[in-house]
Structure formats: structure tokens, C-alpha cells
Design brief:
Helix content: 25-40%
Largest sheet: 4 strands, antiparallel
Distance between the termini: 45 Å
Number of helices: 6
Number of strands: 4
Radius of gyration: 19 Å
Strand content: 5-15%
Length: about 200
């Protein structure tokens, strides 16, 4: 499939089977991420491929965050929240955690490091789609919690930016895509004073 087709037909696929994803396909997806644009060639992305019992790393981190958000350990609510959170990574046979490690350099703008990693994630999602795999980029408040850095061995200036849940799509049709027409969101500027009121 060509790039235009891939961009327009890719969808977030949350329901996948537990069928094993070949390591070669995972490596192809990871390599696609490394081709994202990044200022000053800092390559600020880090990838963690969680398979099998390795998914428990994320499950344990999510459980700790859930307990904290439920007011601390000990209550039945906290235990239920922890168990529910612990099972989330088991929804897919592969979870790729993607993190940013901003470079400490006077000419490196931290926000641009984040942008590069977001671009890497998009590359990875498009590559997964081109390979016929289902993928969804999951985030949410627990993603950015300090406990994620702790569990993934990241430094204080680093940040987990999301989890790509990956697998063979389950039966069913991909959802229809819908976007606001670009014309409604675009201003064409042909003169420097065009935006002045």
C-alpha cells in the first residue's frame, strides 16, 4: 500500500487476538520509528517491547498507579482497581512502550524532542497497518505518572509517551474514519498582512 492509502486507511484497532506476532514484524515497526524527523539528530526515542510475562512490567506499574489513585493500599476498591489495571496489558500479545529521553544540550528544545517521538509513534502505527497488524496507541494519566519512569528505568527528565498495543486484528470490520475537511482548518496566506484585522 502506498503512503497516502496507509495514512487514510489506518485505524486504531483495540481488539486483537493472542496470536504471536513475529519478531521480524516487530523489528520492522521499531525501525520505522527510528526514521522519524528529529532536530539535530538527537534520536530521543526509547522502545520497550513487552511480550509474554514481560507485559507484567506494565501491569505492575499500572496497578501501583491505580492503588495510589484509589487512596492507597488496603481498601477493597484499591485492590479491585489494581487487579483491573494489572490485566490491561494482557489485551494484546505485544505492547511497545515508547518513551522520550530529551537531550541536555543548549541548542536542543525539549518540546521538539517530544514532537520527534510522537512522529516516531505515527511511523510505527503506519508500519503496523501496512503489515496487516492491528495497533492502538494508548495513553492516559497513568502513562505520565512518575511510577512509569521508575518501572521502566527512566531518568527524571524522561517520560513515557504511550503504549502501542499490537496484534493480529480480531474478527470484525475496522471502524470508518471521519475527519474535519482540511479546508475548514486551513488559512492560505499569500501576503504578510493577510491575517491582520
Amino acid at each position: 500500500m502506498n503512503v497516502s492509502e496507509a495514512i487514510r486507511s489506518r485505524r486504531s484497532i483495540g481488539k486483537v487476538t493472542q496470536e504471536e506476532v513475529p519478531a521480524a514484524s516487530i523489528e520492522q515497526i521499531l525501525e520505522a520509528g527510528t526514521w522519524a524527523p528529529n532536530h539535530r539528530m538527537t534520536e530521543p526515542w526509547r522502545f520497550f517491547v513487552l511480550r509474554g510475562e514481560g507485559r507484567e512490567l506494565l501491569g505492575n506499574a499500572l496497578a501501583e498507579v491505580a492503588v495510589e489513585q484509589a487512596g492507597g493500599p488496603g481498601s477493597p476498591e484499591a485492590e479491585a482497581a489494581a487487579e483491573s489495571a494489572r490485566q490491561k496489558p494482557m489485551r494484546a500479545p505485544v505492547v511497545i512502550a515508547v518513551a522520550v529521553t530529551p537531550k541536555d544540550h543548549p541548542k536542543v528544545i525539549e518540546l521538539e524532542e517530544y514532537g520527534a517521538v510522537f512522529a516516531a509513534i505515527q511511523n510505527m502505527l503506519l508500519e503496523a497497518h501496512a503489515l496487516g497488524l492491528g495497533a492502538i496507541w494508548r495513553t492516559g494519566e497513568p502513562t505520565y505518572h512518575a511510577k512509569m519512569n521508575e518501572h521502566f528505568g527512566l531518568g527524571p527528565n524522561d517520560k513515557v509517551l504511550g503504549f502501542i498495543y499490537l496484534g493480529v486484528p480480531a474478527e470484525g470490520q475496522a471502524p470508518q474514519g471521519k475527519r474535519t475537511p482540511y479546508q475548514d482548518l486551513t488559512v492560505w496566506v499569500d501576503r504578510a498582512d493577510a491575517l491582520k484585522k
